[in-house]
Amino acid sequence: MIFIFQSDMAFFYNIGIRAYTLAIRLASPFNEKAALWLKGRKNIREKIGAVKKGNHRLIWFHAASLGEFEQGRPVMEALKKEQPDTKILLTFFSPSGYEIRKNYTGADYIFYLPADTPRNARHFIRSVQPDAAVFVKYEYWYNYLHELHKQGIPTYLISAIFRKEQPFFKTWGGLHRKMLHFFTRLFIQDEMSARLLSSIGVEAFEQTGDTRFDRVKQIADSAKDIDKVARFLNGAPAVVCGSTWPPDEDLLLDYINRDDTPFKWIIAPHEIGENHIKGILDKCNVPVIRYSQEDGRLSEAKVLIIDCIGLLSSVYRYGKIAYIGGGFGAGIHNTLEAAVYGIPVIFGPRYRKFNEAVTLIQQEGAFSIESKAELKELLDTLLRNQAITDTAGQQALAYVNSQLGATAIIMKYLV
Question: Phi and psi at residue 175, in whole multiples of 5°?
Fold first, then answer.
C-alpha cells in the first residue's frame, strides 16, 4: 500500500510539473520572468549535449536563484582550487539567478535546469554523467533526485534548513520524505533542522552551518577600495543603508534630514530605476549626490546614493553602522555582508525567518525597529555613543567568525 501511495503521489507530482510548465507558457507573453524562463530553456538539449567531461571528474551544482548560488559559490571555488581539472556544471531554476551569473567564470558549463519530468531527468543525468551532485538549500526535484539515486551518484544538499511547516513533516508528505532519502548526505544549518530530520527517521545529515558565512568572509577579505566613497566621506564616519525599499527610505530620510552629527549616509537602494532614485533625491533635504554624478562637490554632500549594482558588499566596509532594507516587506536582505565588517546592524520587523538575524539580535550585534520613533531612539544612541556602537559591532563579528567552516567540512566529501 505504501508503494502504491508513493507511486500515486509521484503521478500527481508529475502532473503538477507539467501544469506549472504550461502556466509559464501561458504567462510568458505578459510576464518578463516567465518569458526568460522559457527562452533560457530553448534548445536546452543541445546545451546538455555540449557538456564533455572527458577523463576528468564533473560535479553538478544546482541553485534555485542568486541567493542559493552565493551559498554554493564558496564550495565551487574551493573545489576548483583543490582540483583545478574537475569540471563544474552549474544549473539554475530561476532567471533571477541565471541572468545575473550566466557568465560566472568559476563554472565550466552554466544553463537552466530543464523542467523536472521523468524524461528530462533521465536524459540530463545520462548525458552529463556527473560524478556527484550538489543541491543548494531549498531545491527538491523528485525526478532528478530519483534518477541520481538509481544511478548511484553521490548527491548532497548543502546549507539546508528545515522548519516544521514544510511538507516533509506533514502526514501527507510521504513523497517529500522519500526525496530526503535520495540524498547521500544533508549538510544542515542548525539544531532545529537536526531534530526535525531525526523525528522522521532521516539520519544521514551533518550540522555544518551555512556556507554564506564563508562567502561573506571571502568577500570581506577581497573587498575593493572605492575611491569615490572614500572621497565622499573624507574621513567622516558613515551609516551604510543597503538594499533599501521605499518604507525603509521613508524612515531613514526622516532621520537624515534632521541629523546634526558628523555622520554621513550612504544609501544603496534595492531597486535603482531612475524614478526610484529621483524619488529619494526629492525627499532628501540635505546635500546629496549620486554615485554616477561628476564628483566635483563629492566631499560636500551629506548623503551618497549608490545608483549602480555590484558595490554594496564592498561599501559596507566604510560603515560604522549598517541598516539593512526589506524588513518592512517580504523580509530583510543579507545582514551578514555588513556584520562581517564588525559593525552593528539595524533592520525592520520582518526578520524572524532568518536565523542569522535572530541570532545577531540575541547576541546584541543587531537591532530591529518598527517605527520612526524607534529608529530615532536607536540611532541617537549609536551615533552619539561610540563605545556602545563598537561593542555591538564586536558582537556581530564574533558571531560571524563563530560560524565559519562549513565549506571545509563539505569539501571532505567532494574531493
Answer: -65, -40
